[in-house]
Amino acid sequence: MKHFFKVFIVFFIIFTMIFGTSLYLIIAKESNELVQVPLPDDTSTSPPPEKDEKINILLLGVDSLNGDKKGVRTDTMMVLSMNPETNKASILSIPRDTRVKIRGRKGYDKINAAHAYGGVDLSLKAVKDLLGIPIHHYIKLDYQAVYKTVDDVGGVEVYVPMNMKYYDPYATPPLRINLKKGRQVLDGDKAMQFLRFRKGYANQDLGRIDAQQQFMEALAKKVLSASSVFRIKDYIDTFNMYVDTDMSVSEMGSLALKASKIDIDSIEKQTVPGVPMTINGIAYYKPNVEEINKLVQKLYYNGEEKDNTKIAVLNGSGKSGVASSVSEKLTDKGFKPNLVGNADDFNNPKTIIYYYDKKEEAQKIRKILGKGKLEVDKKKLNEENMDIIVLIGKDI
To answer: In what residue span(s) does the Cell envelope-related transcriptional attenuator domain sit (predicted)?
Structure first.
């Protein structure tokens, strides 16, 4: 089921942006009747990308099929990156059990818990901390969209390879499967039965994946058919009901034009490098930081060597949270600090950027922050084993 949802969330999002937004805007002629997506008051998305910069979008999938929408952990976390220059895209999947430190929490936790603790905002921060890349937008999809979309298109015709019968009252929600073998049109409820059926395939999971791919192909053909133009309003309603995003309609329209030029079959798919591990009886996925850095360079920096300047951000102002804020600004521009903490003295009136042989990088950091006195101090850097130290003063 997880494999299907990973495919579905990408398909649904790209389809909705391209057809649901662009075509509906054309038909409605941008009338005032178009429902505007409500924007959140405060999220940790990065500043808009530069003209030729890749656009990184955090895709979140949540399963509230049991009706619980509060404190829900994410089932799927992926970063979709689109390059407007090359019309290429990549998807980096983040295993839900990835062991990370979540801001404001003690010790380590699973990254999928960030949403339960602090919603999309904390999920954004957790992903940015893990990968060290800017995240420009987010889209969160509730899996109930599967039911609604299948019903919106009038059902999906597939071949059911066997009689499927199964009942599990303890599943969430309870699992009731009762499908007959043969070609038939499945509505939303029967489609979910078909997709959730596990046992009975001769080659086990491979057979199930084949069935899910058959379903996706049938759904895609139905959704992308000429008759779909008459159902665009239904897709928009589904989007408004089950999808949460920080993007306005005009932003989605602009992004849709970029996405429409991308060949979905050519999207590069990767998973955060790491290994499964068990700690105190709890299953985690331990990320490999070194391999993550290599993959990030490949996916987000076109294979070029990402700047590996070692940076410390120290709060010398006494203001709470200022070091994290500065660190996030730097991360958004490709400088991921190695150390974020407090300085020995909280009475520094001015911000100072210490450097030795990294003058160009120090100047870039000053430009990002909009202030900071550049000062050469090799001894101080050696003591901290850093290339650059940003000592935050009361002027930030």
So the answer is: 73-224
Q: Report how far residue 219's alpha carbon sits from residue 10's, in angstroms, rounded to the nearest whole number.
A: 13
Closest by alpha carbon to 354, among 316, 322, 305, 306? 316
Q: Are the C-beta atoms of 265 and 14 separated by less than 8 Å?
A: no
Amino acid code (one letter) for 188: G
Per CATH, is 311-392 categorized as 3.30.70.2390? yes
Q: Are strands 175-179 and 55-62 parallel, antiparallel or unpaired?
A: unpaired
Is the pTM higher than 0.70?
Answer: no
Is the distance from CB of 388 to CB of 361 less than 8 angstroms? yes
Residues 370 and 353: beta-carbon distance below 8 Å: no
Going by C-alpha positions, the residue among 122, 110, 152, 112 that lies closest to residue 16 is: 152
Element (H, E) at 287: strand 282-287
The domain made up of 2-270 has a fold known as Aminopeptidase (3.40.630)
Q: Give the range among 83-87, 194-198, 301-305, 312-316 with minimum mean pLDDT.
A: 301-305
Q: Residue 126 — pLDDT band, cuts 50, 70, 90?
A: very high
Residue 303 burial (CB count, 10 A): 10
Q: Domain-by-domain residue ranges, the chain?
A: 2-270, 311-392
Dihedral sign from CA coordinates of 13, 17, 18, 24 = positive
Give the residue from 119, 163, 161, 164 showing the smallest Cα distance to 138.
Answer: 119
